[in-house]
Amino acid sequence: MENIGFIEIKIVGAKGNLNLSPENYDIREVISMLETAENLLYSGEKKDRPIISYQIEDGSVKHIFRTSIQYIIGFNAILGQISQVQHIDFLDLGTAKAFENIQEIAVNRNYDFSIKTSLDNSNEVNVDRTTKFFRSEVIWANAELYFYGKVTNAGGKDKANIHIVTEELGTLRIQTPISFLEKYDDNLLYKSYGIRVTGKQNSETGEIDTSTLRFVELVDYQPKYDEQYLKGLREKASESWKGSINSENWLREVRGGYDA
Question: Does pTM top 0.85 for this prediction?
């Protein structure tokens, strides 16, 4: 088997009275599909992903994305599952959003999409204005969340954001009212804070939709390693354990378990 495969996203539609083709397919639509394809194949951290090469072909418009066959095989399995269950709730966030983007384009532009791979007998998913490939609102519920880390950016001309670097999720961009930043006197940059936010969270997996995070409150956060405090906790836990367990009975039970 070759080390490279591809996914094909074929679009059939029209531009006014003209059938869709590479000649009348706008560059903004190309950019949108490039971003979508990257999220289809690599929904998580992208800095270490393999190269994805691209070409556009006639018929009406065919997007061809070539990359490592390992990821093509995995994506083919995803297509098979979507084709079978006809929903995307089981997908991780990045992949689900990519399918939602395709579904929105199909509805808004009356395009018909066909998505398959280069594998023999490839699975295939069709998306048009009648399909409903959107995440269930029941699964993605509103949640209140706390994040802790270092602020690396704050502001924005029209839509203000605070960027905070966290250990768990990397850099998060939190939509923040301009009025808060205008009234906040201290310099936020490169200081550690806690931030209370609202956002969407998957009620089944706990996954957080980081694109929905909205600022609620800034919390002073000064991480400090207190050796004496931790030592006291260890001693307290040790004394509690000693006081609640009879060591001779415990040893006798353990030996009895082995004897059995």
Answer: no
